[in-house]
Design a protein that fits this description.
Distance between the termini: 93 Å
Helix content: 40-55%
Radius of gyration: 27 Å
Oligomer: single chain
Order of helices and strands: HHHEHEHHEHHEHEEHEHE
Largest sheet: 6 strands, parallel
CATH superfamily of the largest domain: Glycoside hydrolase/deacetylase
Shape: elongated
Strand content: 5-15%
Number of strands: 8
Number of domains: 2
Bound molecules: zinc ion
CATH topology of the largest domain: TIM Barrel
Length: 278
């Protein structure tokens, strides 16, 4: 190659580079790495606005799901944390509860268990273990029988008090959080007031796992139900998820690790409900 040809190539090459810089400056972009970041962000936004949150499967992690998860973090409520409270009703059970406790321990997460007196009497050591591992305990009535506990306010109160005695005998504590079986009175202001006068706090939920719907859902279906609701921004400041650890709820135990992974990827912090004691 002759000297003149080389100079010509060099001039053409420099002209190209200069043109590129001018174009970048016009776009407000000042460097190559920044261009890369810019295009990646735009790609994420396009992916997100194309409805990725509705179609994407965040259950197993692949490259594209990571983009969805990052986008969730970027649209957190300003200044606020996204908190999630896992709550388990109807236990303890000799099979399901220990599996759930081990999963929670492996993630270092605390949860809340609304326990039933008749089940506590069968498995007192499991309730003791739950409390000793640092989880919150709530009262879910002594026998969970709708006809008896909902025949009147005093019947409900009596079943709650009987359960409180049972919990106290085993853990030495008297938790004042109550969840009404079937959620029968959770929307009733007069029931809440009545229980409050007796020192109890009725605890509601805003996310349904549907794990007690019959026939029972599979673990995959439970994960999907929770995933769909976890995308609702109005629930983000505090999601209280209702699940069940009573007999037969193996699907819940199987779904739990993926539920935790999914919500952690979405930026949720896990907490136990504050346990008020008498
Ligand atoms: Zn229940």
């Amino acid at each position: 190659m002759g000297k003149k040809t080389m100079i010509m190539f060099l001039i053409i090459f420099l002209a190209f580079v200069n043109q590129g810089c001018v174009a970048a400056k016009q776009l407000g972009v000042t460097g190559f790495p920044y261009i890369l970041r810019e295009s990646k962000t735009s790609m994420n936004q396009a992916f997100y606005s194309a409805g990725a949150e509705n179609n994407g499967d965040t259950v197993k992690s692949t490259g594209s799901e990571m983009i969805v998860n990052l986008e969730h973090k970027s649209v957190e409520p300003a200044g606020g944390q996204k908190k999630v409270y896992l709550t388990f009703d109807d236990g303890p059970d000799s099979v399901v509860t220990p599996l759930i406790l081990d999963t929670l321990d492996s993630y270092g997460i605390k949860a809340t268990f609304f326990v039933v007196g008749t089940e506590i009497e069968k498995y007192p050591e499991i309730l003791r273990d739950t409390a000793e591992r640092g989880h919150s305990i709530g009262n879910h009535t002594f026998n969970h029988r709708y006809q008896g506990i909902y025949s009147g306010k005093n019947s409900l109160l009596e079943s709650i008090r009987q359960n409180e005695e049972t919990i106290f005998r085993i853990t030495g504590k008297r938790p004042q959080m109550v969840r009404d079986p079937g959620g029968a009175v959770r929307k009733s202001e007069s029931a809440k007031k009545f229980l409050a006068e007796k020192g109890y706090r009725l605890v509601d939920w805003n996310v349904e796992s549907y794990d007690s719907r019959k026939p029972y859902l599979t673990a995959t279906e439970i994960i999907e139900k929770i995933r769909q609701q976890s995308l609702q921004e109005d629930l983000w400041p505090e999601m209280i998820i209702i699940m069940h650890d009573g007999k037969g709820h193996m699907a819940t135990a199987r779904a739990l690790p993926t539920v935790i992974d999914m919500l952690q990827n979405q930026g949720f912090q896990f907490e136990a409900l504050k346990q008020t004691l008498k």
